[in-house]
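Task: encode each sequence below as structure tokens.

Item 1
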Amino acid sequence: MAAIENIGANQKNNNLNSDKTQQKNFHTDEVVRLDGVTFGYNGAPVLEDISLSVKAGDFLALIGPNGGAKSTLMKLMVGLLWPRIGEVRLFGMDVRHFYEWNRIGYVSQNAVRVNTGFPATVEEVVASGFYSGFGKLFDSARKREAVKRALDLTGIQALSRRLVGELSGGQLQKVFLAKALVKKPEALFLDEPTTGIDAASSREFYALLKELNLREGITVVVVTHDIGAAFDRAKKIGCVHGGKVYIHDNINEVTQEHIAEVLGFRIPELSAVFSKNREPETGMQQSCRPQIPT
């Protein structure tokens, strides 16, 4: 039995060492990379042959119709799902072997659906972000310092002693953003973070994400239905529809026709948003196209 356990341990170490070696062959500025990824449920593919790259410092907004597999794409990026075909890498490492989870922060679609009757303070919820997948807790001094920093970054210092059940939806979403920031991640992944909160709080939240991206250098990938916020704040737009992902590196090339193509309908209210942007350059494609990483 001991011999078998040793063989298993050696195989695991060899896999990790091999992956670290392969990591050196990837672009050092890549946060996440998908190569030829296909994924489906019950044998039916929802994403097919997806290849894309998110670089350090990017602010990528993923848009698309309901049921278009945006959340599935994000779960693949952060290792909550594994591809049936293809490869996903985080910071150059196969997501199946990735272990540096402190380098990313993740805010799920269901983050704010908490038991508001649970007697936890804002500070306690933010501090709970210190638990890694292995249940490790950082030392007390470092914990206090990091919690204070996360509260400062999200502007909710004054709420630190409040119970989470007393907060508005917008305030609560900032709490879970602070929780994701507490380990000082290099990248944030957020799945529809402003669902269910009012328009003013949504604008404030996206302004905060842009500030974190520009001032702190944190890479941001966000799934959103708030098209206006996406164009006001993001640097790149990713259109997810029909089982494909199309990345627009130049946000100014995206037109209302693009959005109608992706969503299946036009949004008249977006006229003001697009009027802020420059007209697309002559000869630029007027339809979505897949991104091929280099």
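Item 2
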Amino acid sequence: MSGKPPLLLICGPKHCGKTSAGLALKEILGGDFVDVDALIEEREGLTARALYRRGRTLFQEAESRAVSSIAARAKEADGVLIAAAGGGLIDNEAAMETLAEDGRALIVYLEVSSAVAWRRIEEAAKNGGGLPAFLDTENPKAAHAALHERRAAAYRERAGITIDAEGKNPRQIAAQIAALVTEPGQSLKPFYRNGLRFSCRRCSFCCRAGPGFVFLSGDDLYNIAKKLDMPHHEFIQVYCRWIDWDGGARLSLKEKTSLDCIFWKDGCLIYEARPVQCRTYPFWESMLGSEEVWLCTTEECPGAGSGSLVSGEYIESCMELERSTRILTKKDLEYEWRIQVTE
């Protein structure tokens, strides 16, 4: 791809951050931004949710008209046009056909796990939004899981760019998209080849007040249980939870109701035995996708971008450790560790 495409269409499941990432991307690339659902409301006089409750066909026809309008606008735009679509766009054959025929749109898929997407939907429902109409079934969670997996596979097939959006803020997502659409395929290693500055200040930025997962490897389980002088099965029952992930269940530390890590109390209670995920932070691949992504991290984490110079070799070793670490599953515990798993 030479230069930026005329239309960047950001897609993904409900509450994955499409609109906020799109607005952040506009700040980086310039151009204009439009939210498809907001455009539908403006044109039809009803919110997308209200329109869907009147009938799926009625909604999809309105969505198709909005997409056609955006595609036409992109042709006349001087710069890039960034659009955030509704989660079900992939199921709208007419709208997808319009995009395919136009040939000027780049679909960017923001990927989050089914578990994360469901939790965000639940949180929105509790805050007064209610469940969306497409989940008005006897078992909304099961319906969502099936729908999420089907749509995820379809989006990955149609998308020109797929971004792992989990655990990233809108600016980090936007910076990663910007790097890919402006200089695709360029090596990203040079910006940290000579090292980056970082010193952990134990400030709790990565440990508190936000939802997330801390997945555990076999070594993590062994080391933390040893530090706490607890049997492995007891440690799992007291401090761990199972997270549905890619069709399986992964072992993660629990969170408090405040969303703090279970081991945070005026500091990390297991700092010397903290998991690989924590030890390699902030040198994760997701945070080193481009220099812009790293700069976003330095604005949020007080220790990133300051303190001691960490060598490029060490940064690479952290990324390799993160890639190679095998997260424990229920099958691992039952067949290798001989621990009976209970829900």
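Check on item 2: Residues 56-76 form the longest helix (21 residues). The chain has two domains: 7-182, 190-335.
End of task.
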